[in-house]
Specification:
Number of domains: 3
CATH topology of the largest domain: Fumarase C, Chain A, domain 2
CATH architecture of the largest domain: Up-down Bundle
Helix content: 55-70%
CATH superfamily of the largest domain: Fumarase/aspartase (Central domain)
Number of helices: 20
Strand content: under 5%
Number of strands: 6
Length: 457
């Protein structure tokens, strides 16, 4: 097949180079965006009188027919045509001859590629936002159901203070809420149209860039043609957003793995979201959570690959930039695979409230509340901290817990302690007295969940 750019060459490209150079095997997924961009460009060329209006109309009509044929699997792309852009144009020319050759007037593959990737990623961000929202709504449902489910909170993976499952999972809601905001912000910076930048220096044709931008749903046009074709900040930014989503899923996965272990037994994963062992019949493995945790490194690798590819490139376009697509496509595919299965795993898991409560009763999770009790009765906090530390040491020696001590034992550590301490340091009180914004108290969490439910509607 003769190359559309082959005029100055005296021999055909080596077949090995054709295969090495070609990107059609991965950029074919952008066919709809490429055709939409070409339709808008053709309409503008006709409107501006750069090509005859009847030619523009025929190009648009034929491109739409090609789109329909692609979606009906009637089109076979060619490696010889290198990429999706040249494949579409080659098919167009094969159908309408010289009229099809007019389409590329006033544009380069450089700004065409930059346009298509922006449009494709914009579409994918919209899809990702829906998946992230679905996970957030699942978390809200779990939180609403477990406002009073007391569990231990941890620091350093050591029991620290009593909280609720609602409070715990809503921490991940906050992370995912920020993830949604980041994706939305990324979309804003991405949604600027580069077409009209040409190869690097624009064009002498009287293009109406704003018309094309409006046709394609962009918020504006790029202001520097060099930057227009060489900018891939938005690809890196999206890769970072995806990496952070995976960070959050991976952290949550780690806790799911811990909670489903025999040692914790806080949850039971649904059989549909677990696997067994080929040799040990008793095993029920949290493979979904483990795979999400493992695939996180894959997405990180895409971000690192993108940054490394770009770091030494001079302006403007370089063939290295073809490497952006496999990296970002794989990152998107991985995250879109992980989000729905993780969401369903959470939605179907069973919470063992008794085990969570039992866990909160151990490890002296109410020790801080004993110190706070003493402070409220006039003892400086540092002194109260020391008193409670000695109480904990005593309990460890006696193999008991603070709230099981007799009043005589309590008062041997401080005469400020009275009978009301037992209620003050009950786990329910410990949780529900933490009413500050951000705390685990039931009334606080109810208000937060209610506000976020309205946001999600």
């Amino acid at each position: 097949m003769a190359k559309l750019w082959g005029g100055r060459f005296s021999k055909a490209t080596d077949t090995q180079v054709d295969d090495f150079n070609s990107s059609i095997r991965f950029d074919a997924r952008m066919y709809a965006q490429d055709i939409a961009g070409s339709c808008a460009h053709a309409k503008m060329l006709g409107k501006q009188g750069i090509i005859p209006q009847e030619d523009a109309d025929l190009i648009v009509k034929t491109l739409k027919e090609i789109l329909a044929d692609i979606e009906e699997n009637k089109v076979e792309f060619s490696i010889d045509a290198e990429d999706i852009h040249m494949n579409i144009e080659t098919i167009l020319i094969s159908r309408i001859g010289d009229v099809g050759k007019r389409l590329h007037t006033g544009r380069s593959r450089n700004d065409q590629v930059a346009l298509d990737i922006r449009m494709y990623l914009r579409h994918e961000i919209d899809s990702l936002l829906e998946e992230v929202k679905a996970l957030r709504k699942t978390i809200l449902a779990i939180a609403k159901e477990h406002l009073a489910t007391i569990m231990p909170g941890y620091t350093h993976l050591q029991k620290a203070q009593p909280i609720t499952l609602a409070h715990h999972v809503m921490a991940y809601y906050e992370m995912l809420r920020r993830d949604g905001e980041r994706l939305t912000d990324c979309r804003k910076r991405l949604n600027i149209m580069p077409l009209g930048s040409g190869a690097l220096a624009g064009t002498t044709y009287p293009l109406d860039r704003e018309f094309v931008a409006a046709e394609l749903g962009f918020d504006g046009v790029t202001q520097n043609s060099l930057d227009g074709v060489s900018d891939r900040d938005f690809v890196c930014e999206l890769a970072f957003c995806l990496s952070l989503i995976m960070t959050h899923l991976s952290r949550f996965s780690e806790e799911i793995i811990l909670w489903s272990s025999h040692e914790f037994s806080f949850i039971e994963l649904d059989d549909a979201y677990s696997t067994g062992s080929s040799i040990m019949p008793q095993k029920k493995n949290p493979d979904v959570a483990e795979l999400v945790r493992g695939k996180t490194g894959r997405v990180y690798g895409s971000l690192t690959g993108l940054l490394t590819m770009l770091k030494g490139l001079p302006l403007a376009y370089n063939k290295d930039m073809q490497e952006d697509k496999e990296q970002i496509f794989d990152a998107i595919d991985t995250v879109k695979m992980c989000l729905p299965v993780f969401t369903n795993m959470l939605a179907t898991m069973q919470v063992r409230k008794d085990k969570m409560l039992h866990g909160a009763k151990g490890g002296f999770t109410n020790a801080t509340d004993v110190a706070d009790y003493l402070v409220k009765h006039g003892l400086p906090f540092r002194d109260a901290h020391g008193v409670v530390g000695r109480m904990v040491a005593y309990c460890i020696e006696k193999d008991t817990v603070i709230d099981a001590l007799s009043m005589e034992e309590m008062q041997s550590f401080s005469p400020l302690i009275q009978e009301d301490i037992y209620d003050a340091i009950s786990l329910t009180t410990c949780v529900n007295e933490r009413k500050l914004i951000g705390g685990p108290a039931m009334e606080t969490m109810k208000a937060v969940i209610s506000r976020y439910e309205k946001e999600e509607d």
